[in-house]
């Protein structure tokens, strides 16, 4: 099916404040909530850098069943306690429809990860659970999904009543091995042309290496993205997940200044 011919135009609202006109939203934080101490230190970095949204996974979709799977419900408690005490809003991943209600109690924005982009039961369940609420959803692009499949996945959420859906480009799998995935910035522009949904970029999972995160972030602003989701950690080398791509404190602090001229050129303010 051709999405243009099918007339799909997913209804965006983003009235929950995650994305607003003229703003370039930065969501930052560790891959995973590891402990109260770790999440608090990492969330304070995000607050100190002046950002309003912190990320942190409690339920992690790990490639290997032997890798750290996240703290689950305990992680959600830490996420909400710490973020609320710091005045931050939070974004966390949902893996299982059974956890949606609990996650909505602890976080303002639900993330559907790349590995679940085509989990239609999850998309529908999230769409109906958030219907009429202020909760938002960040829908990552599957790393082997076309833009059309990605947009139609978003349509599953909105067709079920969900609003405040934000698309997130996080790299696709190609033959290239110098980066973890290949950041597909054309997809950002194409998705914005085809829908009225906001589109953000996750340069951290795309690159898989911290030295590329800032340059790819600048490129994302120029490619008309509405924001970023970046991984950062107070002790990147000690991170239990995705240590190689986490920005340390100085880099997170410097990101805003690095983005400023690009954001200004695009008529945006970094928030
Ligand atoms: C994440 O954001 O922690 C994550 C697992 O991302 P993705 O689904 O894009 O791999
Ligand atoms: Mn990660």
Characterization of this structure:
With 271 residues, the protein is of the alpha/beta class. It has one domain (24-270): Alpha-Beta Barrel (TIM Barrel). Helices cover 38% and strands 14% of the residues. The chain contains 10 helices and 9 strands. It has helices at 3-6, 36-48, 73-85, 100-106, 120-130, 147-159, 185-194, 203-207, 213-222, 249-265; strands at 23-29, 53-55, 89-93, 109-112, 136-140, 165-169, 199-201, 227-231, 269-270. An 8-stranded parallel β-barrel has the order 1-2-3-4-5-6-7-8, surrounded by 7 helices. Helix 7 links the parallel strand 6 (165-169) and strand 7 (199-201). Helix 2 runs parallel beside helix 3, helix 3 (73-85) runs parallel beside helix 4 (100-106) and helix 5 (120-130) crosses helix 6 (147-159). The radius of gyration is 17 Å and the shape is globular. The termini are far apart. The model has no long low-confidence stretch (mean pLDDT 95). Phosphoenolpyruvate is lined by residues 31, 57, 61, 113-115, 140, 170, 202, 205.
